[in-house]
Every structure is written in C-alpha cells, then in structure tokens.
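anyone seen this seq b4? input:
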Amino acid sequence: MAAPALAALIVAFFYTGSSALGITFPEVFSHEVPEVTVCLAATALRAAIDKYVVTGTRQDQTFKYAGYSKIYANFYTMQLAIDKDTKHAAKTQALRVEWAASASAPVNDLGAVVAFNTDFQPVLD
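predicted toks r here
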C-alpha cells in the first residue's frame, strides 16, 4: 500500500491548503495519517485507475459509495491484517508518520508540496 502515488495523494488532499483536513483537525492528522485515511485514498486511486483502464485517458471520476464501499472495506480489512503483524504494522505506521510530517515540507517551484524525498538519483552514461 506504499506506492508513491498514494503518499502524494494523501499529502496533497489531506494536508495541502488552509482548509485541508490535516490543518482543520490537527488532533487527528498531525502525528500520523489515520489508517482509515490511507484506505480511503487507496480506494480513490483504485477508482481513478478503473476509469483509466476503461477509457485509456485521464478523466474526472465520480466517486460513489455504492461502487467502491466494498473496495474500501477490503483495503480496511487488509490494514487490520497488517496491524496483526508486528513488523509490517511498524513499517506502515512509520510511513503514516512520515507522510504527516511531510505536510510541513517546503513547496517546489510550482507551489506543490514535496510529499517525500525518494533519494532517487539516476546515473546516466
């Protein structure tokens, strides 16, 4: 569940802007991204991917409870299974803490929040 797109979506939607939920409810979002938030963001990404697979182009997608509630429930069930494994629970919690902390990261030249540092440096020959 730790895809870069997931982290970027969470930071952009829940932590960016003066009315973002992370700003409005710091008692919930300031120390770590709640597990249910990760599951909701993963479900939103799934909806976007589903639309792309059908159309082959990026399009706005209506995100409806009826169509994606079971997918959200599956992500949440997966998270509960992860929580039962000490090693993987610690890893996912560390990611949620990192994502919440990155909300105070500086913005790039385009004004977008830098969600996390990948330390990826390509070597071209």
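The first helix runs from residue 4 to 15. Helices lie at 4-15, 21-24, 26-29, 35-55, 65-83, 86-101. kinda curious what u guys think
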